[in-house]
TrEMBL record:
Binds 2 divalent metal cations per subunit. Has a high-affinity and a low affinity metal-binding site. The true nature of the physiological cofactor is under debate. The enzyme is active with cobalt, zinc, manganese or divalent iron ions. Most likely, methionine aminopeptidases function as mononuclear Fe(2+)-metalloproteases under physiological conditions, and the catalytically relevant metal-binding site has been assigned to the histidine-containing high-affinity site. It comes from Alicyclobacillus acidoterrestris (strain ATCC 49025 / DSM 3922 / CIP 106132 / NCIMB 13137 / GD3B). GO terms for molecular function: acyltransferase activity, transferring groups other than amino-acyl groups; initiator methionyl aminopeptidase activity; metal ion binding; metalloaminopeptidase activity. NCBIfam families: met_pdase_I. The keyword Lipoprotein does not apply. A divalent metal cation 2 binds at D113, H176, E209, E240. Its cofactor is Co(2+); Zn(2+); Mn(2+); Fe(2+). This is Methionine aminopeptidase. Removes the N-terminal methionine from nascent proteins. The N-terminal methionine is often cleaved when the second residue in the primary sequence is small and uncharged (Met-Ala-, Cys, Gly, Pro, Ser, Thr, or Val). Requires deformylation of the N(alpha)-formylated initiator methionine before it can be hydrolyzed. A divalent metal cation 1 binds at D102, D113, E240. The gene is map.
Length: 417
């Protein structure tokens, strides 16, 4: 059913239309999931585009931008300072890149639009913070998409979060209505006061799309006529979902059921260990480490190892309580990680990466050459995690134990090696 705005027609969708759009959104989400696993250093953006195109066509859908808009690719892939509309080509993904993938799909006559920014580890903490802030701005905007509210309520929520984070909204990038056309009314800015513009009504389908710069809000278009870049060369992040306004929580069409890829980095507080923490930390360490140590060394966790008096122990807490801890100290010219333990119920939410960034920043601030740690050879999951962050095996100082090292670049470098 169409609704007339000031100068436009804004549609609310029937249940049959929403059913078609749910199928389209699921295809879009599935293509993103395939690409999430395909992105790795060395793969070219053209190869990623080919993977996406094959997945789209296999699902009986088509790219919304290749034929209708004449874009030279099935999807947009934008790297680092590229804001959007990046053309797939021969560029090979590198460690330290921010890779923005924007997928627009048509299925059964209806469109969905979805974008993610992928971090190719290792990246500087500032880049990771930009990505986290943009993801959180998307979540804040979606939460304001309620019937009876105004379109600019979404704009205000996004803009305030980005402003509070110290970044800049790319102002010509907007959210939009979506349905039988890729871009429909209403336009949804990512900044501005609340309480303005068309009212949100149940059955409206919109794409919410914050695009955020670490530096200037101004952009330039490259000579290819498509790719926008930040005018000052600063990094940019981009997230987008297609959602339905319902009588309650907004429904995200472009998210797979049970997917964790939209989960923002877990807010965590770091504090020094207190004496009354020790029993809880020891219990947590035993629960997470005993099985590994019994297999590797034939024994359980020992308190004297966990609470080395020469080391610093930091406790990790979320709003729900104890999340983990880590212990570290300086050893000659490196920062040495003695122990890191993350509670099993929140593993996979980015806490491990936050801890490693904390240690690398601490090593850099003290002028140290790198970060080192020991890991048991039977702890293959941990070894893969550290390898993805750039750690390399150095030697085996103890039975069934690898010493791993990662060099830390100077403060002026924009990548961690």
């Amino acid at each position: 059913m169409p609704m007339k705005g000031a100068d436009s027609v804004i549609y609310t969708r029937t249940e049959q239309e929403l059913s078609n759009m749910r199928q389209c959104g699921e295809i879009n989400a599935q293509v993103h999931e395939v690409l999430r696993h395909a992105i790795q250093p060395g793969i070219t953006t053209r190869e990623l585009d080919a993977i996406a195109g094959a997945e789209i066509r296999q699902a009986g859908a088509k790219s919304s931008i290749r034929d209708a808009l004449g874009f030279p690719g099935d999807i947009c892939i934008s790297i680092n300072e590229e804001v959007g509309h990046g053309i797939p080509g021969d560029y090979a993904i590198q460690p330290g890149d921010l890779v923005k993938i924007d997928i627009s799909i048509e299925y059964a006559g209806y469109h969905t639009d979805c974008a993610y920014t992928h971090i190719i580890e290792p990246v500087p903490a500032q880049a990771a913070q930009l990505v986290a802030a943009t993801r959180q701005a998307l979540a804040a905007g979606i939460q304001c998409a309620r019937p009876g509210g105004h379109c600019s309520d979404i704009s205000y929520a996004i803009g305030q979060m980005i402003q509070d984070s110290g970044y800049a909204v790319i102002r010509h990038a907007n959210g939009h209505g979506i349905g039988t056309s890729l871009h429909e009314d209403p336009i949804i800015a990512n900044f501005g006061p609340p309480g303005r513009g068309p009212r949100l009504r149940e059955g409206m389908v919109i794409a919410v799309e914050p695009v955020v710069s670490m530096g200037t809000r101004y952009t330039l278009c490259r000579s290819d006529g498509w790719t926008d870049v930040t005018a000052d060369g600063s990094l940019c992040a981009h997230f987008e979902h297609t959602i339905v306004i319902t009588d309650g929580q907004p429904e995200i069409l472009t998210k797979l059921p049970n997917s964790t890829s939209d989960r923002p980095a877990l807010p965590v507080q770091y504090r020094d260990m207190r004496e009354d923490d020790k029993s809880r930390l020891l219990q947590l360490a035993a629960a997470e480490m005993d099985d590994i140590l019994i297999t590797a060394w034939g024994r359980r966790v020992r308190p004297d190892e966990i609470f080395d008096p020469s080391a610093t122990t930091k406790v990790l807490e979320t709003e729900d309580g104890l999340a983990g801890f880590f212990t570290y100290s300086e050893r000659q010219d490196v920062m040495f990680l003695h122990t890191v333990v993350i509670a099993s119920d929140i593993q996979g939410q980015g806490l491990g990466k936050q801890v490693m960034r904390y240690l690398e920043e601490a090593a850099r601030a003290r002028g140290l050459a790198g970060v080192e740690l020991c890991v048991q050879t039977n702890n293959r999951r941990a070894i893969r995690f550290y390898e993805r962050l750039g750690f390399q095996p150095v030697e085996m100082p103890y039975a069934n134990t690898k010493l791993m090292h990662k060099a830390v670049t100077s403060a002026g470098d924009t990548r961690w090696s």
